[in-house]
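The authors assume throughout that readers already know how a fold can be written as discrete tokens. For illustration, here is how one protein appears when written out as sequence plus structure tokens:
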Amino acid sequence: MADAALRLKSLIEQVLGAPLPVRIRAWDGSQAGPPDAPVMVVHHRRALRRLLFKPGELGLARAWVAGELDVEGDLYTALDLLAGLVWERGEDARTLGEALRDPEVRAAVRGLVRLAGPPLPPAPPEEEMRRRRGHLHTRRTDKRAISHHYDVGNDFYEIVLGPSMVYSCAYWPDSDATLETAQRDKLELVCRKLALTPGQRLLDVGCGWGSMAVHAAREHGVSVVGITLSQEQAAYARKRAADEGLTDRIEIRVQDYRDVRDGPYDAISSIGMAEHVGADRYLEYAQNLYGLLAPGGRLLNHQIARRPQRDESAYDVDEFIDAYVFPDGELQPVGTTVALLERAGFEVRDVESIREHYARTLRGWVANLEADWARAVELTSPGRARVWRLYMAASALSFERNRIGVNQVLAVKTPESGASGMPLRARTWN
């Protein structure tokens, strides 16, 4: 079959009703498509079988993770070109069901089935999280989901994140700053927003590898309790605290936020953790944190947000992210987050969007991964490394295109007297 690429391009365009913006190189070596565009390499017909069984994002992701699909050229450009066909087709685009009413589209699908060959469907790649029945966001299911994402290996995360070991949006002071500088500035920004002073108690919810705990204890003299559900993160964070000589001021626990009982704390930081809480549990999360704060205490909630939908009841989670990256993770609009924090009793005093900062952060992580690709594969697996590269590159584009955002929400447990302790002039931390 010396013309597989041309046949594949023609059949896909008939199904999509739009020209394919990338060049295709098929398993037989043939090529078709725009000569100067990034090349989508279809290494095996099995990639087509995956797309036919799971049309759209999940099928593409499975083929990518299995190594049956690849991109030659700039990955960001390829993803940006494909976004209009796969992720952002718009309200006027036909759904697959509507398209299949067209006899020509049905004929094209039959052509793809013949081109793909038997059998159908292939088993999902190993790295996919197997779905289980039952309630989401119980202590058991949350621990399992966190382990899937964060217990990949500390050595692997050192490659991706760099020496800071901060796995959340950095805060870039200027365009020439390094990733390390930007992560340090983010941690310092959080500390300033919380107005930390020596002797205070800080609870760091979802403490990761201990970066915030170490920075707050070392630079601001506070005592920190950091909690995580990841055994590997906890071990790493404890070692960092010991290496810094801060074990008298830092306690790292493997503990669910719902099980913390030793308040009051003067401040709480929750940086990149609330995405794991779930919409049905969010009010409970906010109420728990409110109950752990002393009157006048501050919460800094740093959280990714999605854009509001015209029909919120029709919102679906991202299939690729849910299956491979953050199982059971849920994003909600920033307005929903603010409303739930206020329902829990907080007074929201500041909301800062830092969306563009996350795009820069993710591009930095992708560059780190690509620079040490062979070792990253050795530490995990080819499939796992491919998952991380795809999800971080696609996420960078999502932030750049305003499909998702990230916000720091500063809230206060204002006492009955109304004395919030906040300065009269806003943003004094800048």
The chain has two domains: 4-116, 139-412. The chain has 17 helices and eleven strands.
